[in-house]
Amino acid sequence: MDIDAWIWWLIAAVGLGIPLVLTAMPEFGMLSVGAVAGAVTAALGFGVVAQVVVFAVVSVALIAVVRPIAARHRDGRPGHATGVDALRGRQAVVLERVDGNGGRIKLAGEIWSARALDSGQSFEAGEQVDVVDIDGATAVVM
């Protein structure tokens, strides 16, 4: 029984897909896609050399292009800040006098305790202040 070359390429694609599932290494998936491209080349009637070249070119191209993009997405920070990070740099309105000892502000629709970054500085009710940091449950403003 003679098996066509494209079937061997599909067997190779499945063989390369198994370590992808077991190890979660995307490179195996890219090699598997290269094997599928080799199978398509074989099914179209091209010779062994063309099949191997297509496999190599597709696999290397995927690894060279997709891997850096995936690494950037994996290593990058989230697109938007959340929690305390989302409050830094925002503006707030002083509700009760804020100085180095304390006070109250309205920040993001909520009332927060606050203190001035510079202990000698004070802000009166109605003034706009910038949130520099969040220290526990207290906003540090300037």
The main pleated sheet reads as:
5 strands, mixed, barrel
Number of helices: 4
- Which regions have little confidence, pLDDT < 50, spanning 5+ residues? none
Q: Quickly give the structural class.
A: alpha+beta
Query: Radius of gyration from the CA trace?
Result: 30 Å
- State the order of secondary-structure elements, H for helix, E for strand: HHHHEEEEE
What is the beta-strand fraction?
15-25%
The backbone outline, from C-alpha atoms, is rod-shaped
* Oligomer status: single chain
What topology, given as strand order, has the largest sheet? 1-2-3-5-4
User: How helical, in percent, are the residues?
Assistant: 40-55%
Mean pLDDT: 91
Alpha-carbon distance between the two ends: 82 Å
Number of DSSP strand runs: 5
Descriptive notes:
The protein has 142 residues and is an alpha+beta fold. It has four helices and five strands, in the order H-H-H-H-E-E-E-E-E. It has a five-stranded mixed barrel. Helix 1 packs antiparallel against helix 2 and helix 2 packs antiparallel against helix 3. The longest helix is centred in the middle third of the chain and has 28 residues. The model has no long low-confidence stretch (mean pLDDT 91).
